[in-house]
Amino acid sequence: MEFNDSTTSIFEKAIEFIHQHYCEELRLGRVSKSVGVNENYLSRLFRKNAGESFNQYVANLRIEESKRLLKEGNKIIDLPEKIGYMSSVHFRRVFKKVTGVSPKVYRNSLGLDTTMKADQE
Length: 121
Prior knowledge:
This is Helix-turn-helix transcriptional regulator. The protein has helices at 5-21, 28-35, 39-49, 54-71, 79-83, 88-99, 103-109.
């Protein structure tokens, strides 16, 4: 697969779409339709241009956003919905896979108020 200005433009449009919609349910098919290419082609573009799969890119983006929200003092329990995860269990699993620590451990490492209620976890 050769990469030219058109290919780069497609990838950039896909990235822009993802950044605008990451807090919604986001699948490769939806993004590929938004930029007018098939899923397999967009998947290859991600591996080549981002160095990771579409799913890894979206997960990393969501976890970076959740880290930003934690720094702002948001409750852990509120994060999954804000960043596009429908399940708090899935969010915690992905957070730990990406960062190596749980959201609670990450929040505590920030040195924020540690007297937060347990229901915020």
